[in-house]
Sequence to fold (89 residues):
Amino acid sequence: MVLLNENPFGGSTASAKPAAEPRRLGGPSPKLSKRLSEKFERTKEVASAGMEKSVEKTKVAAKKVKEGATTGVHWIKLKYSKSSLFQKK
Fold:
């Protein structure tokens, strides 16, 4: 006689307990992944703050380079404008 609820491995499915959820590594609750996500959030905040500072420093440096280049070009113009080689005849 074949029963409809018969398990081919010998047990009955009617009396079997429902399968429990698989346990996660690190304990019953996701403590490890929560800590990692919190650290990742802090890392992102620090990195974005660092980027803001570097952008400000880059702007200051670019301004200094521009001023230095302007001064150098002006010096060259003054030096060669006095030269007789570049005087218009």
